[in-house]
Write a structure and sequence with these properties.
Elements lengths: L4 H6 L4 E9 L9 E4 L5 E3 L7 H14 L3 E6 L3 H5 L7 E8 L2 H11 L4 E7 L2 E7 L4 E5 L3 H12 L3 E6 L15 E4 L2 H6 L8 E4 L4 H12 L5 E4 L3 H13 L4 H4 L2 E2 L11 H17 L20 E4 L9 E5 L2
Parallel strand pairs: 8-9, 8-11, 9-10, 11-12, 12-13
Antiparallel strand pairs: 1-2, 1-5, 2-3, 4-5, 6-7, 6-15, 7-14
Helix pairs in contact: 5-10
Length: 323
């Protein structure tokens, strides 16, 4: 639901369906959401297409009646089978109307606050936590940066593009970035809050920019540090970083050349390669073709946690802001 927040807040009313439980294999994880607006417009997805039509009808009903619905779809269910849930699993979907407290929670999340919301339906209480979007810091205002910013935003990152050259670092050149900063990369990074979810991608392949910012980045507990460049550039960069005093353990965290081997060459293809490595690292993927593996396809992050029934009245939504 957090991914839909900006659109939901722009609608004067809506019904939103959220996946609150998954058993077995299912196309979308717990927390996936789809919403229907006042004119019947729909955004999001709860099943990748399998049960969207059924859930859409439920959302329209809830939008009209304001009565919450908790529905289960599974392979053995005749209705679910008819609409295409043939992946072998089952899922529970909670459908509810907008409320002032839900809108307040969505707004707090958009404003960058960590939020926890609780919903009750049919004697079950569900908790969903929304953390601020992870940050993607892109250093180097080159053509590749525009593509990386676009795919980074698509993946849910808060994207910043930074370069010391004002003529290149402009919002017009990077419309997908949330912010464009004119500053020396290492100075900006030194003054910027980062955490264990932050990703840094260095695209300049110019030592006067690369080395200082990578020294700073590799000294922090970041989720991802990658740098673009040819094999020769990357080898020279490693030598310079060693000369700058970066230890072998820190150098082992540097992903350079950044990206998975997809064979692409264009800025867009390079951005897909970088994004693929980001996603693989973030979720513990192998980067191998799924057809060559026998392990489960979907890893289900528990963004929704089923809690025990408590004293919340049915139909309530409790907002808790952390930090």
């Amino acid at each position: 639901m957090r991914d839909l927040a900006e659109t939901l807040l722009a609608w004067d009313r809506f019904a939103v369906a959220s996946v609150v439980a998954v058993r077995g294999s299912a196309p979308r994880p717990v927390g996936a959401a789809m919403a229907v607006g006042p004119s019947g417009a729909v955004i999001g997805s709860v099943s990748g297409g399998c049960v969207e039509a059924e859930v859409y009808d439920l959302a329209c009903e809830v939008l009209a009646t304001s009565q919450r619905r908790l529905a289960t779809f599974g392979y053995s269910d005749d209705t679910a089978f008819a609409v295409g849930l043939t992946c072998g699993g089952s899922l529970d979907v909670l459908v509810q109307r907008d409320t002032p407290s839900l809108r307040a929670a969505l707004q707090a999340s958009v404003d960058g606050h960590p939020v926890s919301v609780r919903f009750e339906a049919e004697g079950r209480v569900f908790t969903e936590s929304w953390l601020p979007a992870p940050r993607l810091l892109v250093f180097g205002a080159i053509d590749h940066a525009a593509a990386v910013a676009e795919i980074g935003r698509f993946l849910g990152y808060h994207v910043t593009v930074c370069d010391a050259r004002a003529v290149f670092a402009t919002p017009e050149r990077f419309p997908a970035a949330h912010e464009v900063v004119v500053d020396w990369p290492h100075r900006y990074l030194a003054a910027t809050y980062t955490d264990a979810q932050t990703a840094v991608v260095v695209l300049t392949h110019d030592p006067k920019f690369d080395i200082p910012v990578l020294v700073e980045a590799l000294g922090r507990p970041l989720a991802f540090v990658g740098a673009l460049g040819s094999r020769r550039t990357c080898a020279e960069r490693l030598a310079r970083l060693r000369e700058a005093g970066v230890g072998e353990a820190a150098l082992g965290r540097l992903r350079s050349p950044v990206g998975l081997d997809l064979g692409g060459r264009t800025p867009a293809e390079t951005a897909v390669s970088i994004a693929a490595e980001l996603v693989a690292l973030r979720h513990g993927g192998t980067g191998l073709p799924l057809g060559d593996l026998s392990s489960p396809i979907h890893r289900s992050p528990a963004r929704f946690l089923l809690a025990q029934r408590n004293s919340l009245p049915i139909g309530s939504c409790e907002l808790s802001r952390r930090g």
